[in-house]
Amino acid sequence: MLDILSVRLVVEIFINGVLFGAMYGVAAVGLSLIFGTMRIIFIAQGTIIVLAAYVVYWLFNTFGLDPYLSLVVVAPLAFATGATTYRFLFRKAAAMADKNTSLLIAVGLMFLVQNVISFVWTPNPKSIITSYTAVGFEVFGSRISVTRSISLVIALAATAAVVLFLRRTLVGKAVRAASENMQAAMLMGIDPHRVNAIAFAIGFALAGAAGVALATTYPFDPYYGFSFALKALIALALGGIGNVVGALLGGILLGLIESFSSFFISAGWADAIAYAVFLLVLMFRPEGLFATSFKKA
Amino acid sequence: MTREKRIIGLSAIIVAALALLPFVPGAADSYLFFLLYLFFLYTIIGQAWNLVAGYTGQISLGQHAFFGLGAYTAALVWSRGLFGAEHVYYFDPLTLIASGLVAAAFALVIGFPLLSKLRGDYFALGTLGFGEIVRVAFVKGGSYTGGPFGIVLPSSLYESLRPHYWLGLGLAAGLTLLIFWIRRSSLGLALVAIRDDEMAASSNGVNVLKYKLVAFALGAFFTGMAGCLQAYYLFHVSPEGFLNLNWTLYPILIAVIGGSGTVLGPVIGALAVTVVFSYANIFFPELHPIFSGLAIILVMLFMPNGIMRLRFRGRA
Description:
The structure holds 2 protein chains of 2 kinds. Chain A is mainly alpha-helical. Chain A has a single domain (4-118, 135-284), classed as ABC transporter involved in vitamin B12 uptake, BtuC. Chain A has 11 helices and 2 strands, in the order ααααββααααααα. Chain A has helices at residues 4-38, 45-63, 71-94, 100-121, 146-168, 170-180, 182-187, 192-217, 224-239, 244-264, 267-284, and strands at 136-139, 142-145. In chain A, strands 1-2 form a two-stranded antiparallel ribbon. In chain A, α2 runs parallel beside α4, α2 (45-63) crosses α8 (192-217) and α10 packs across α11 (267-284). The model of chain A is unreliable at 293-297 (pLDDT under 50). Helices cover 71% and strands 1% of the residues of chain B. Chain B contains 13 helices and 2 strands. In chain B, strands 1-2 form a two-stranded antiparallel sheet. In chain B, α6 (162-184) packs across α7. Chain B is globular and about 55 Å long. Classes of the chains: A mainly alpha, B mainly alpha. Chain A binds chain B through residues 39-41, 89, 92-93, 96, 98-101, 103-105, 107-113, 115-116, 119, 226, 230, 233-234, 237, 266, 268-269, 271-272, 275-276, 278-279, 282-283, 286, and chain B through 53, 59, 113-114, 117-118, 121-122, 124-126, 128-130, 132-133, 136-137, 139-140, 245, 249, 252-253, 256, 260, 286-287, 289-290, 292-297, 300-301, 304.
């Protein structure tokens, strides 16, 4: 029997799941874009998000820059870094038929970045406490923090921006064409390196936005990025690889699975349950849960 | 052919010299001796990963699960006295083989659904998910697995590194020899055929699933034994030390640096990684992991086919 208290509890678990899942979602959208043109799982995405969170932390502590205001600095910076990273690390490997090279460069990059972070900022967890961190409001009797809600808004806005970019702009169309069939796209005069660089730049910019969302809501440490990337990967698989909106929905679904299973079963098992769902989806519905019928797997 | 014979002869001499090294007075106490042990351990896990990825083309990201399963098997069998109270568990061949078998059994159980349904990226992700589930299961195993702290074994039995050294050398040399033999057998031909063109192999009557499973389970078997060996060295089997994702990253690094898909590649790679890691550890202890990340990137950028294949650059 459900009384008022347990309804409120379920609502709270639900809202927390959605709010946290949205961050997995943004990370997954970045992965999805890069996978689309490069056909690699960019495993360093989570670590780039954590790096962005550290930059936000540094700007806040050194210059007193408001974390949300720092988005104006961090996102363009991340965009440029993404394009540069592609130019110097992945350009050569992208042309090779063997995708393992790109995958392993991403692994090396992840190693490198997380250890540079831990060298510069120490491995201890960090978090940003602003004057409004503790502020919250009530919905159906449950308290929701403002910062987490803003994170959700950032996630939704970032995904919407990517969708608009892909659907409305010529460059976006080129990226979509390249993800569907790189060979045909090249025959139409699309430069593969340019599309890849754009995918990387946007992927990194999304990581910048996710970094702001992460820095303002949860504590983070240098090694958190890897597990974050794994979660983003699960979100991607749930939503269907190559499906941008699906990636966001997959992230939210994953957030819900985690928050419900950690409440009803145990926090430690939540990870295992998430991975089990991931394995089941990979095996029985590799095209993802939200794939529309006409889409190829 | 003569070149190959020369390499085989040279390898035999090197292995024999390494096997006799512990008899040199003082050798067993030097830092170099420990590095050689590490080199053997790395060779085993590198070769095991290479068997699945280099020959069959299926990238496994769940090797740390097999390494941990082997180590935990050794620790559980020992701490619970599963083979009887009067049994000697330290360097016990029965435990060693059991460690390999448990890992191989898990590889078969998880490999059957994964390999029959998934390939490429999806298989890699599936094994990664499997590895994480195993890790969580051991962390949450309560008093049976010792939870996050793990199981401590009686370290008073430790006398010297010699038995570890010999066992490591034996496993590394044995596995390399086995792979050399596999490479020339019909099994090896089938594996390479699957890697190069799965469709063509299957239409020529190669049972793709069977061969992939054999390679996957064999790799897990040796990785599990390596886990058992490392458990006898550390005397403390914990999720942090054994189910760490490093045990998946190291073999990949080793095989790729040396040249994946070659018999001696992982050996060269293990040597390179041991040297780089230990030097970085001595000279820049704090920067050591940064160095490793940089090493992967540099190798991939400038010799994507590994050290072994440098001379065939035009072909690959």
